């Protein structure tokens, strides 16, 4: 079993709890998780010169309600939020780092 394999996930209050195959656990505040969405609409993407301009993202109360999680292959999760945003692919490495920060 890979150490980065996700075994279980559950929302507890305003946190996402993740259990990993290596026995580790990660807890991430849902607001922090949504604000860290790695998609281009939230974080920007490089232009032809390599410059990234981060777009202005407006969140509402619904933005921080996690409705659904879907595993993407063996490396990431895709979240669907209460404001219908669902384009972010959160790698397992990213999820672990958000919990450790």
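-> sequence recovered:
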């Amino acid at each position: 079993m890979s150490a980065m394999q996700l075994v279980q996930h559950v929302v507890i209050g305003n946190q996402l709890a993740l259990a990993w195959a290596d026995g580790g656990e990660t807890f991430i505040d849902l607001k922090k998780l949504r604000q860290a969405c790695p998609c281009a609409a939230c974080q920007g993407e490089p232009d032809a010169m390599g410059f990234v301009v981060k777009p202005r993202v407006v969140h509402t109360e619904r933005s921080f309600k996690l409705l659904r999680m879907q595993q993407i292959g063996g490396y990431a999760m895709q979240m669907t939020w209460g404001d219908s945003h669902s384009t972010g692919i959160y790698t397992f490495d990213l999820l672990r780092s958000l919990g450790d920060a």
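The chain has one domain: 30-100.
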